[in-house]
């Protein structure tokens, strides 16, 4: 029985990786043929960033079973820390090394914040956890809006008042300029890097989900009291899932920010957290492959409907409602189960006929 389950999970994982690789190859072929619009090309890196965010949030919401609304906060922390590393190191350091360090620092800093937030917050659950994580995201946004950071020969200078209060020398450079954020970023993200990071995220999280730790996390989701009664360290595994989710949110933030010439905190507001949660819910809570597909489709859909400017958000809302009903309605779930069972039975019948023949 365990061998069958292992084969089934391996097959499912290979299909997920196959979808990502196939999408990459199709985009490269269409791009080489000149069939992609500039608008769609501009959406490729954000698609990868949102896919990473959806997968990582699904680890918290779907696998751990805790509702978090602060994912944009971790994305913001990672984006600003990673972008600062890129801006300061790229002029003097080989770009591949500077880019690698930017992603590592962005992920590590977001993971540290995930740990600091998770230790007190994960003692809560349900609506309380959602409210606290939402507050964290808003606090990060407001702090970054008021943050001024400069660099000169004497080192870093920090202020929450204005750029003039930094007290830098004449040759100093303002790195973070309050609500204007970080400007003059040399773009470094591309679709290939984004695809590699998506595959890396899937590798780590899928391996975690199917590991012993992943089974412990799932048992906490299903019945925390029972998990505690058999000696599973609840706090340890909750923190493991929460911090891992935060790390990849930070990496996604760096990928997203290095696709633009400027970075402002208002990009990572409450609406961004809700958007990521929408990807998770519509793709199926606990379904990582569904998160990949939902994030990609729903990122592109508003741009595809841009020609119908007066009705595009109406159509977008209708699509969300229809997909939600299709994924979550008990009647639709029962219908899909019947169709799947009939299809499998038909396949077995054909195999038996061929064997008889």
UniProtKB/TrEMBL annotation:
Bilayer topology: Multi-pass membrane protein
Top-rank lineage group of the source organism: Bacteria
UniProt entry tagged with the keyword Nucleotidyltransferase: no
Residue intervals passing through the bilayer: 12-37, 43-65, 72-91, 97-122, 191-209, 239-258, 274-301, 313-333
GO cellular component entries: plasma membrane
Organism name: Candidatus Gemmiger excrementavium
Location(s), subcellular: Cell membrane
Keyword Protein biosynthesis: no
Record's protein name: Branched-chain amino acid ABC transporter permease
Predominant location category: membrane
Coiled coil start-end: none
InterPro entries, per the entry: ABC_transp_permease, LivM-like
Biological classification of the source: Bacteria, Bacillati, Bacillota, Clostridia, Eubacteriales
UniProt entry keywords in alphabetical sequence: Cell membrane, Membrane, Transmembrane, Transmembrane helix
Pfam families: BPD_transp_2 (PF02653)
GO molecular function: branched-chain amino acid transmembrane transporter activity
